[in-house]
TrEMBL record:
Signal peptide location: none
Pathway participation: Amino-acid biosynthesis; L-arginine biosynthesis; L-arginine from L-ornithine and carbamoyl phosphate: step 1/3
Domain Aspartate/ornithine carbamoyltransferase carbamoyl-P binding: residue ranges: 19-160
Enzyme Commission code: 2.1.3.3
Organism annotation: Phascolomyces articulosus
Gene3D superfamilies the record matches: Aspartate/ornithine carbamoyltransferase
CC per GO annotation: mitochondrion
Family: Belongs to the aspartate/ornithine carbamoyltransferase superfamily. OTCase family.
Domain Aspartate/ornithine carbamoyltransferase Asp/Orn-binding: 185-340
Protein keywords: Amino-acid biosynthesis, Arginine biosynthesis, Transferase
Protein name from the UniProt record: ornithine carbamoyltransferase
One protein family per Pfam: OTCace
Length: 347
């Protein structure tokens, strides 16, 4: 080993690694190319079953999760394994971000021993601190402001559905034969629910891809001003529209897709009675869609876990529901992100 190699290893002047903190940081072209790559992985693994390359052999992805997770954890662990790497889960009982050891110290220590970090945190400032101090790529698995891996999976699911519908394909998978940039523009998504991190990520991702968003949330539930500004600026460039209302019927008018999420999240159980009252009339039902004038062939999405207050069984388990393909696609889009950051060197 040369002296130059040794000195490089101890240099404090290392280039900043690429991160995936929010879809707001990327262009529509970059996001849809990521979706296209995710679809390639899905076809290769699920349908062709012919992968031999394992680019992450010998590498470790740390999962720093301060909150419980089903889809994100399973998706990340299986995606990392498929690429040949090892996923190390560090939950709340294993490591606590910012507790007993500072967030800064945690980021520097963990990132010195792994090749990438998938982090599910509380405040968005925590993921920003991790990214600022980490020596390896950070992927935001969820913060209180954004949830980028979920919305990337949503874009993939929407592309798959409309590709197959538009081409009358029912007996095989062909979404890989068309780029997502050709299927998404002109659609309308109606959001009915809380003004939370899912809606905020939708707002910084969908309008730039040409998807209009109409969001209904109760009075007093509002998105961050900077998120709204990004959405409106992106919509002005793409030709999409962004509107806000407190009336669910108004939001779902002419909607292609109706989306909702949990109203009572972990840690909010004491607010449940209050929220149920404030969200009265916000349950997604066939009747709501009909009263509001959604398109006859509208479909439904939800990032899960789902509670019946948010959407009734008739919609959730109907042929209109895309929730289970949407959940599966978390694996393929996370795989594409890991591949981009740890194998290709950036998005």
């Amino acid at each position: 080993m040369s002296e130059d190699t040794i000195s490089e290893g101890f240099s404090t002047q290392r280039p900043k690694p690429p991160h995936f903190i929010t879809t707001a940081d990327y262009t529509a072209e970059q996001l849809l190319d990521l979706v296209d790559r995710a679809i390639e992985f899905k076809v290769e693994s699920k349908y062709l079953k012919n992968r031999t390359e394992r680019p992450l052999t010998g590498k470790t992805m740390a999962l720093l999760f301060s909150k419980r997770s089903t889809r994100t954890r399973v998706a990340t662990e299986t995606a990392t394994a498929y690429l040949g790497g090892h996923a190390m889960f560090l939950g709340g009982q294993d490591i606590q971000l910012g507790v007993n050891e500072s967030l800064l110290d945690t980021s520097r220590v963990v990132s010195s021993m792994v090749d990438g970090i998938m982090a599910r945190v509380g405040g968005h400032e925590e993921i920003e601190m991790l990214a600022q101090e980490s020596a390896v790529p950070i992927i935001n698995a969820l913060s209180d402001k954004y949830h980028p891996t979920q919305i990337l999976a949503d874009l993939m699911t929407i592309h798959e559905f409309y590709h197959h519908r538009n081409n009358n394909v029912t007996d095989r998978y062909t979404a890989h034969t068309q780029h997502p940039s050709q299927t998404l523009k002109g659609l309308k998504v109606a959001w009915v629910g809380d003004a939370n991190n899912i809606l905020q990520e939708i707002l910084v991702a969908f309008p730039k891809c040409g998807i209009s968003v109409a969001a209904a949330a109760p009075a007093g539930y509002k998105c961050d001003d900077d998120v709204v500004a990004i959405a409106q600026a992106d919509a002005a460039k793409s030709g999409a529209t962004v509107t806000f209302t407190t009336n669910p019927e108004e939001a779902v008018k002419d909607a292609d897709i109706i989306v909702t999420d949990t109203w009572v999240s972990m840690g909010q159980e004491e607010e449940k009675a209050k929220r149920l009252q404030e969200f009265a009339g916000y349950q997604v039902t066939m009747d709501l869609a009909k009263r509001g004038g959604a398109k006859p062939d509208w479909v439904f999405m939800h990032c899960l876990p789902r509670k019946p207050e948010e959407v009734d069984d008739e919609v959730f388990y109907s042929d209109r529901s895309l929730v289970f393909p949407e959940a599966e696609n978390r694996k393929w889009t996370i795989m594409a992100i890991i591949d981009a950051l740890l194998v290709r060197g950036g998005i």
